[in-house]
Fold these 3 entries.
Entry 1:
Amino acid sequence: MRLKLSELAAIGCTAHRTHCPLMNRRTFLTASATVAAGIVATGGAFAAGRAPVNGQRQEGRAIAVDPTPLFELSPYLFMQFMEPLGATDGSVEAAWDHLRDDWREDVVAITRELGPTMMRWGGIFADFYRWREGVGPRDSRPSMLNLLWGGIESNQVGTSEFVDLCRRVGAEPLVCVNFESDGRRQYMNVRGHVRTADAKEASAWVAYCNDPDDRDRRAHGHLAPLNVRHWQIGNETSYDKNGFDLETAARKTVEFAKLMRAVDPAIQLIAWGDSGWAARMAEMAGEYVQYLAFHQMFDPDAPRQPVLRGEAYRRDADATWAQLMAAWQLADAKIRSVRDTLGARKIPLAMTECHFVIPGRDRGDVLASWAAGVSYARILNTHQRHGDVLRIATAADFCGTRWQNNAVIIPTPKGNNRAYLQPVARVMQLYRHHIGSHAITVVGAPDGLDVVASRRENTAYLHVANTQRTRSVTASIQIGGVALRSGRVFEIAADPAVEASYLNAVWEFPAASVSALELAT
C-alpha cells in the first residue's frame, strides 16, 4: 500500500465538518513509480490503512504537555553524512553529473526537500584523504584509491563542490580532517604514496576555507571564504586496536585543535569520544574542542531468533514490527552510555553517524518498508529527548545507489528516474520542518503513542509515532491549561483522509503513522 504525505490545516473549525472553514491543503505525495517504490511497504504487510482492523480502535487518554521551556534544541539534530564509498555504494560519484561538471539536478532538488541542517564530509575515508587533491581545476585533479571501500574516486567532488552543495540546500558543512590516519598504518603509505596528514595539513585546510586572503583558494577562483565552521578531528579512532590509544589520540587532538584554531578561532571542533573515551578526552582536550563525537551503527534484530535480516521480515509482520518498535531502546542506551561517563561535565555530544546495519542485500531490504520509518521516528524522538546534551545527530547516511540505510537513493542509470527519499528520510523531513526551538515536557500520552514536544513562541510542536501496527489511537490534546487557537497536522500514514477540530482538540492517529502537529496557543 502506498504511503502518502498529507497536510491538513484547520483554523476556526466548528464542530461540524460541513461548516468548517478549512484551509483544506491536502497535498498528497503523487510520486513517480521510482519514488513510490521507495516508500511502499512490501506487500502491504507493514502499513495499515486508515480503517481499523476488525473494527478495533484504541481510545486513549490525553496527550498532556507542560509548555514550560526546558532547554534549547540544536538545529543540527537532522544532519546527513556524506562519505565517498567507492565500489560499495555510488554515494558521491553517482551524485555528480560528470557531463555537466555539476551535481545531479534531481539530487539537489530532493535534498532541498529533505532540508538537512548540516552535512558531514569524511568518515574513515578521511584517514587516507589528501584534501589538496580535491581542489583547483578539475582536469588536473588526480584520482585516488579508496583504500577502505574499494574502487577509485575521481576527486571531481572536493572541498568547494561539497560546500557548494551544502549552500544550495541550506545545510551547514562539517568536515572531518585526516587525523594522521587515526593511527591506522594500513592507510598511511600505499604504493609509495603518503596518505596520512598531520595537524599542519589540517590547519592549511581551515585556511583554504576560511582565510579571506588564502592565495590558493583565490587562485582557484573562489575569492570569498567558504566559511566552514564545523570540523571533526578523528573518526572512529577507538574502533581499531591498531590505531591510536586514548592518551595518544587526546594529546594529538590538542595539537590539531591549537593549530586549526590559530588559523580561525571561531571554528567549532569535534573530538572523538566513543568507546568510553569521552571523560578522558574531555579532561585532556575539553578546553580546545566544543563537542565529543560518537557513532551508533547497530543491528536492532534479535540475536538468537532474528526476524529482520534477508527475507525473514516478510514472513511474520507482527514479529518484525515488534522488533523494530523496540530498536529505540538500543539507541537510547548508547547515548546514555556516553553522556553518563561525562558525569558533571557539560560538553555537548555529536552523533555524527547513526543508522541500522541489518544483514541482507544492501544492508537490509526491510529498511525500505514503512515499518522502518516508524522505527526511525522513535529513534529521532529519542534524540530530541537527549537534546540537552546531544547537539548534532543523524539517523542515516546521506545518499547512494544501493544501501537501504541511505536517506536519498540515486537511481542508475538515470533515464527518467529521479532520486527519491527513503522512509527514514521522510520522517527526518517531516520532523525537521515542524519543530520548535525549545524542548517542553510531555507529561502523559496514551499507550501506543511515542510523543515528544517542543515550542517556539506561542506554538507547540508534537512529534507523534503510533507504535501500533493495526490500531489507530484517539487522544485529546492538552497544552498546559491554555486553549488551543488553531492547529495543523502533517502526517505520514497509509490513508491521509483525516480532519481536526480545535474546539475539542481531539485527534485520531492512524495505525503505524508518524505525525507532526503545530498547535497555536
Entry 2:
Amino acid sequence: MTTPSTLDPRTPVLVGAGQASDLVDGPDYQRLSPVELAAAAARDALADSGADPAAVAAAVDTVAGVRQFEISLPGAPAPLGRSDNYPRSVAARLGADPARAILEVAGGQSPQHLVTELAGTIAAGRGEVALVFGSEAISTARHLARAEDRPDFTETVGGDLEDRGYGLDGLISDYTTANGLTDAPSQYALFDNARRARLKQNRAEYALGMGELFAPFTRVAAANPHAASPTVRSAEELASPTATNRLIAEPYPRYLVARDQVNLGAAVLITSVAAARRLGIPEDRWVFLHGHADLRERDLLDRGDLSTGPASVMATRHALEVAGIGADDLTTLDLYSCFPIAVSNIADALELPADDPRGLTLTGGLPFFGGAGNNYSMHAIAETVARMRREPGAYGFVGANGGTLSKYSAGVYSTIPTSWRDDRSAELQAEVAAWPAPEVVETAEGMATIETYTVKHDRHGARTGIVVGRLDATGARFLATTVDEYTLDLLSSDEEPIGSAVHVTSADGVNTVTATITGQGDRPGGR
C-alpha cells in the first residue's frame, strides 16, 4: 500500500486551488482585468495550500496561463487592452519570478492538459512547483468598451514566454468558412442532430431530453457564488424557444449554449512531495492525479460517425483505466458542457443517466456557471480538489473538451496517495489516426443525401442552413449551405431531414443545397 512516507519525493500533488469572480451586477463589482482575476484566484490557491503564501510564491518555478478568448484568434479585439505576457503579469502580482512561463494553445482542454503535463514534468524531476491559471473578463470588456471612464488593461512586462500558438490546425479552414460553418453552436449542432437521428427521436423528444440533461446543472449553478446565471430552470423551460430563449442554431436555444459573458478566474498549484514538505504544506491538503489522458479527434469532416466523439470517450476510459477504477467508483464528475452533446457523448459511453445522483457537474456547467473561455475546467478542477479533501478516499473525474469535440483531456483525482503513472495517450492517438475516414470533396455537384444539418438563426430572424451530405454517385461527404426557404422549412420541419434527398451545386468555392421530393428530383410546382 502506498503511503505518503513511501512516495518518491518527485511525486506530483495538487496542493492548492482558488477561484475568483467579479460579477458586473454584483454589489462588489471591481472592474478587474483578466490578469487581476487570475492573480486573485492564484492568491487563493497559494493560501489554500496551508503554507506561507509568500514562501510558496517564491518557490514557483513554472507558471502556465490558459489563453483568454481575446488572444485565441489572430487579430481578435481586446477593447480594453491586454498584457504582452499574461503569465508573467500574473506572476508579478504574486511576487513570483519563475524560470519558465507558458502560454498554452486555445481550447477548453487546456486546464486539464496543463495540470497533467506539469504534473508529469514534476514527476520527471524537471520542476518542483507549478502554478496554472486562467481567467476571462469578457463581461467587463463588453460592459465598459464604450464607457468614458473605461479601464485600460494594457500591460507591458516583457520577459521570456513559451508561447505555444493558437493551436487552430484542423479547426478552421477556407472550406468550412466559405460554407458557413464558422461558429461553435452550428458545429456542435451537427453532432446533436446526428445523435437525435441515430436514437430515432423526434425534435420534441430530443429537445426535452437536452432540457432534462441540463436542468440539474441549473440547480448546482444556483448554489454557486461564482455562477454567472444562478437561476434554477426546468427541463421544459430550457428546451422551449421563447423571446428570451431564442434559437441560436437548431436544436439549441440560448439556454443550452455556453455563456461566455463572464468575469471569472481559477488557479491550481502543483508541487512535488519533496517541495510540499519543504514548504510546510500539510498532507491533508494533498490531492493526487490518479489517472489522465489526452487525445485528439480527427478533423470534423474526417470523422466516420458525426453522432459521437469516440476519441473523447477513449480518453475518458483510458484515464479511468490508468487510475485503476471504473465509472461506478467515481464520487464526483464534471463533464464539459458547452453544448448538450459534449455531456451526452461521455454520459452515453459511461451509461450515466441525466439524473445520476452524483450529478454530472460540480460548478453548474458552462451555460449556467459560465463558459469561462478556455479556462472553464480549471474551475472544475478547483471544485474537485475541494470535494476530494472533504471526502478523503473518494474519486473525482474532470473531462475537459476543446475545439469541436476535437481535443479531450481527462483527469481522475483522489486524496489516496499514489505514485505517478504514465498514460498511453500517444499510442492511443496513433489508433485514432488509423480509423477509417470518408472521402471528402470540396466541390460537390449532383443528387445527394443529408447526413446531418443545422439551421442558424440571427437576432433578426434570418435563417441560414448548414448541411453535411453524401453524394449519391460516390458516397463522398461534402459541406454546403442554403438560404432557400423551401429547403430551410424542410430542415426545420417536424419531419426527419436526415436521409432526405437534396441537390447540390457548386460555384466560387461555395456548395449550395436545395431540397427535392424524394424519388422525383423536383420541387412542388416544378421549381
Entry 3:
Amino acid sequence: MNRLFKSLFLMNSLSLILGTIYTLFPGESLFWNSYGILLLVTLTGNILASVSGSGHRKLDLTYLLLSSFGLLGVLLLNTFASVSPTNESSRSLLSNVMLLVLLINGALITGRPFLHKKDRVTPSADLSGRGTSKTSRKITTVFLGLLLFFGVLLAFILVTDFSVGIIEVVVSPYSLFFSFIFLSIAGLYVKLSEVRWRSFKGYLVSAIGAFLFLIFALPFFYLPSLLDKAEADYTEAFGDEWQTHGEKVSAFRDLPVSLPAFFFGIPSEGYELTEDVLYYEGTEGVDAGLELRFDVYTPSMEAADLPGEGSTLIRIHGGGWDSGDKGAGNFAQFNKYFASQGYVVFDVQYGLDDKEQFVGIIPTPEEVSGDFSIDDMVRHLGLFTTYLADNHETYGADIASVFISGGSAGGHLANALALGSSSGEYTDIIDSRMSVNGIIPLYPANDLASFRNLSGEEALVDPKLLVDQDSPPALIYQGENDSLVEPQVAENFKEAYLEKGNSEVAIIEMPYGSHASDMYFPGFYSQSFLYYMERFMYQYR
C-alpha cells in the first residue's frame, strides 16, 4: 500500500508542477492531453487514497471536501467566467488555484505514509466519524445520502432522453466533474458516518460511488467515437479540403479536445466589445415600446491577418421564443472566440412572446417582450440586417460573407432567416446587400413553435420547407439525448437538404449530449464542435 501511495505522491507532484505551468501558459498538444490523462488518474487515485486512509483523518476529509464541493465551485467559476461578455480572459484564476490546492492536498495525503514512517496506511481501520455526536453523524448521513440519491437521478438523466425540462442542460456538459464529485461524496459518507468500510453498508455506498463515477464518465469514454464520426460526417458533406486548413491556419485549434482545458478553462484571445447598441425602437402597432439592441465583438488586431478576414457572424440566442437574452444568455465565449479569429460577431436581441415564459429562471429584459409571433421575430432580425447593411463599415464587417448561428429557438430563427431569404419566398427578410454563406444551427427547434402556441407562416415555423438545392451550407450541432429538441428534428432538417439534392449539410452528434450541452465552453462537446465550426466558416467565408 505504501508503494501505491508513493506512486500517487509522485503523480500529484508532477500534476501540480504541470498544472502550474498550464495555468500560466496554456496550450493544446498531445503532451498537454497526456497531462490531462495523468490528472484524471491522479484525481481518481487521491479519492481512493483518502477513503482508504492516509493516517491523517483531517487531511483525508479536507481532500474529499475539496474534491466534491470544491470541484463544484470550480465548475461554477469556470462557467461564469466563460459566459460573461466582459471577462476578457474567460478564465477564473480562483478556480485554477482551487485545482492546484487540491493537488497539494493530494500530495500531502499520499506522501504522509512514507514521509512520516510512524504513520501507517490501514484501509481496514474503523473509518467512522469519531469525535462527533450521534446527532451530527445522522444529519451528515442523511444529507450525503440525499446527495447520492440526487446523483443517481442525474445519472439517469444523462443516459436517457427522459424529459425533465431545463434541468437536463446542466448534466452532460459537466459530467466529468460529477464523476469526481459523487465519488468523493460517497467517500465522505463512509468517512463521516458510522459505516465501516468493510461492511455491507460500506460496500453498498462504495458501489454507488463507483457506479456514479463510471456513468458520469461515459461522455469522456465516448470521445473517440464522437470525433471519428464527426470527421467522417463532416468530410462526407463538405469534402476533405478542410483537413489541410489546420496546417495553413496557425490560429486554429490544433486538436478537437484539450483535456486539461476542461478543468482549467480556455483563455480568450484579444477582442473588443461594444454593448447595448440600439438598432430598433418600435413606435406603433405591436412594436410600440419595443427596444432591440445588440452587442458587437470585433478583433483587437487587423482582421485581414486573421482567418475570418472581417466576415460577419450573427448569433441569435435561444430560450423558447419567450425567454433569454444576448450576452451571458448566449454563451458569450463563442462570441469572444470568433472575434479573436477575425470575425465581426453580432449578438442580437429580437422580440419575445410575453404570454408565458417557458424557462422562467432565465433573465429576460422587459423591453423586448410583447405579443410577438414567429413572423414578428424574423422581421425584427431582418430589421437588424438592414441596420447592419447601413452601418457595416463602422464595425469593419464584411456583409458579403455572413454566417448566421443560434441555439434552440435561436437555431430555428437562424434557419428561417437564412433559408427564407435564399429560397426567394421571403426576399425582404434579409437585406439584399448581404450574402449568407452558411448556417450554423445548434439543436434547432424547427417546427416546435406550434407547441408553444406561437403563430406564424408555416414555412417560417418549419424552415425545412424552405430548403432547396441552392440553400446555404449548414453545420448542425445536436445532442443525442436532447429531450427538449429531439434529434429527429435535426435529422429531418438534414434529410430536407438531401432530398433537394443539396449534400452540403452535416450533423455533429454528441453522445449523451443534452439540450444546450455546448453551454460549458471548455467542455468536450463545445470544444469538439468549435473545432469543426471554425473550419466550416473558414471554408465558406
